[in-house]
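Open question from group meeting: does this chain pack into something compact, or does most of it stay loose? Before anyone orders reagents, we agreed to write out a predicted structure and look at it together. Recording both the input and the output here so the notebook holds the full record.
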Amino acid sequence: MELAAAQKREQIRSMIKTKRRHLSCDDWELCSQAICEKIIKLPFYKEADILFAFMSFDNEPDMKHLIKHALTNHKKVAVPKCEAGHRMTFYRILSLDEVSAGQYGISEPVNTDQVRKLQSTDHSLILVPGIAFDLQGNRLGFGHGYYDRYLSGSTLGITVMPAFSFQRTDGIPAAKTDVPIDCIVTENNVFYTADNRYV
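Structure tokens returned:
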């Protein structure tokens, strides 16, 4: 049973990654912009003191517009750095000039002084990347477990997965270590997983 679930997860990953890589540059930019604009309108984005963002990789939705908006509106912004043991730490950035390519080719914070390290609070918004999602809030990442490890700790705040609408799939087989997402935002819709509600 576990083997069948693992095989299905890999099939979904492969299918969605292929679709995402075939996005045209124009569609990627337009859909990314639409996703950012929808997040900006969310009440818990407006209330957030800290935005835990990610730097786009492998044609993930581009969050730079949202990051710039948060910085302009005096929110703290943090992005993750991959560390030993498949774990990650979020460090504050003051501009997008403070990131450069790191592990796996993903942009990471340059300044990793301890004073830049940020922990989530009740008023944090945590953006969680992923390859696929279902309407129960399950997500598939790249399979390394970085975000599930991070979120399974005493992490506070609201989790939001920015995704393109074609990344939706039905019935992702969830693993015991998977942490469901509170809200999914595509270029077309906002979906609140707790009360099964579209906006």
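Observations to bring back to the group:
The first strand starts at residue 50 and ends at 52.
The helical segments are 2-21, 25-40, 43-46, 64-72, 146-152.
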